[in-house]
Structure formats: C-alpha cells, structure tokens
Amino acid sequence: MLRQYELRLITQGTVCQILGISSATLFRYLNKLSEGGVAGLRHGNTGKKPYNRMEESQRRQITHLVCTKYRDFQPALVCKYLFRDEGISVSEEFIRKIIKSNEGARAGKGLEEPHPLRRRRNRFGELIQIDGSPHRWFGEDEEPCSLLTFVDDASGQITAAGFFPTETTEGYLCLIQQHVLDYGIPLAFYSDRHSIFTAVPREDREPTVTQFQRVCSLLGIESILALTPQAKGRVERLNQTLQGRWPKEFKLRGIGDITTANQHIKEFISEFNEEFGVKPFNTEDAHIPLPKGLSAKDIRRICTPWETRVLSKQLTVGYKNLIVQIQGASRYKLQGKEIQIVDYGDGELEVIYEEKLLPFKITTRDQLTTFEPYEETPKTIDRRLDEISRRELV
Prior knowledge:
The protein is of the alpha+beta class.
C-alpha cells in the first residue's frame, strides 16, 4: 500500500482507510520505508523478550498447583487462592489456558430453556429467599448433608446459613432466630412448597399450622410459596455457586464435619457477600426493629418448636418420658385446656397457655410411686390388712 501511494496509484485517504491509520502514522511509515526499507517497518520490540514475561520456573509452579492442589477448581477460584495463599497474581484467562492445555477443553453443558428474570426487590429485607441444598459438602467419601441458606433478594447477600444433617424444621427455625437477631424482622420469606413451610391438606383431618407458619405468624412475616424452583432462582443459583466453591474451601482448610463448618460459616458468608453482594436500588432498610419488650430470649422462645398437649383433670400432661404438672393454677379453669410445651433441646422446658408462662413440676415416669403387690389367701388377708394399717399410721 505504501509503494502504491508513492507511485500515486491511490490517494492518501484511501491508504489511511484501508490500513486503519492516521495521516501522521502514514508519513511516519513512509519515512521508515525510505530510511531502512521493508525491514525498517518492523516493530522495535520484535524478537525482544517482554518485560512482564513470567519466569519459566513460576509458570511451572502454577501449572503444578493447578494440576494438583487446585485440580477441578474453576479459574476464578484458582486465581483467588493463588493470590491469597501463594502470593501469586495472575488473570483468569491465563489459568484457563493452563487448564485447557493440560486437560483439554471442557465439554459444555447443554443449553436449558431460559427462565425470565424477575426484577430484584428495591430494599434490603423486603424479601428473603430460603432453601436447602443437600450435597456432599465435605468430600465424595463423606456422607451428604444439607446447607440451609437465607439470601436477600435486593442485595444478593447471605443473611443466615448453617449446615444440618438433613433439611428440617428445627434448622430453619434456628436460622430465622439468627436472621431476626442480626437484622430485624423481614417483610416476607420466599420458599418452595415443602411440608416444612405448608401443611399437606388431608380430607380426613382439619387444616394444621406448621411450626414455620406459627413462627412467621407470631413475628408478622409473610410466607410466600413459589410455584416452581425457577421462581426463586436467586437462592437456587446461590446453592449452585456454593456447591462449586465451599467444598474446595473446606478441603484446603481441612474442614470435614458439620460442627467445624458451622464454627467458621460466618467467615465464609462475609467473604461471599463481599465478593458477590450488590447495592440495593433503595438504601433504606426494610427490616422492622424488634418491638420494645421483645428480648432475645423471647425470640429464642418463638423460634423453638412448640408441642401442643391437653391438660388432664389433675392438670398433668405426658411429654416424652416426663409427667408435667401445672402448679399454682385453678384446677377447674385449666382442665381440658390446650397448652404449649417449649422444648429447648438442652433439658430446659417451658409451658405456655394464652401467651403466658405457667409454673410446673416435672416427674419422670421411673420416679412414679410403685406399690408392693400383696398376694394373700382368704385365711391371711385380715392379718395382712391390720399390718398395713399400723404401718401407715406410724
């Protein structure tokens, strides 16, 4: 193109347009061509070693770590742990090239039908999506367990999470208590239609209220049930992300059980929120502060499972291996009434009737008085009864 321009076969504007250069660059090229010929047009750094080229020893070190310690890690995670634990800063694309060169290109996942995205809520605390994620969190050789998570819809931040053997009511109630004490009372929970969140209707029984519904009712939290898993996609995608990240984090830190993981879970939540949390559209917090007079102990009481029992004529009820007898109450007022037994799981019990705590006495079934059997004949019964009478009068 430069030779054609020198021979006046094409114009200056045509050369600049075809080569994508400015007029100043064109004349600089012409000067180099006239002074040094075609070789003069070569870039000055051609053949030189880049100043920022990585040392071959460090490249081999990174390749070894990717193939051993960080095997099966996503490129983003490899970059994170290389910088945090090894003090090596590289790009995701660099790690991706190493993975492809050593393991081959990974097969892509089949495309799923896209689900329309729902706009985030405006304020933090307006909607909390909740779900459980069963997975082998501590390695393929360990038993699976469930991670229960609460994620704010507006900010994408995890507000509460915990590992439990299975997805249970007690686990969700524990996280509700944690969330309320940390942030306040949210406006609504968004969950699936598991029997934990809604009672399964039966024709032969009256509608019942689950423990989860009871807690939401007492705290004034709306419980919204999703029709499909895609509807609560925020927490579904969160679970997929955590399944790809946290097991690898546990492996690096030597965490291999539920107890240890729960001891460090606030640290993991903080790291996740810092990396993936977004700023809500409205900075106002939608959480409702705890009403005056409602203490942390009251929240614990509300978020503990309640068992309904009916008082007998002696104001007693059976609970597990215990006999619970109400004290200091009118016998005729409470006979046949329903009471709630609050079992904290550590041996502590409370009895509630019409939002009031009742005093009570506990007797175990093996402490109940037993009576000595008397086997007498008609000839000896009179004498034995006389002995019993004298003994009881002493």
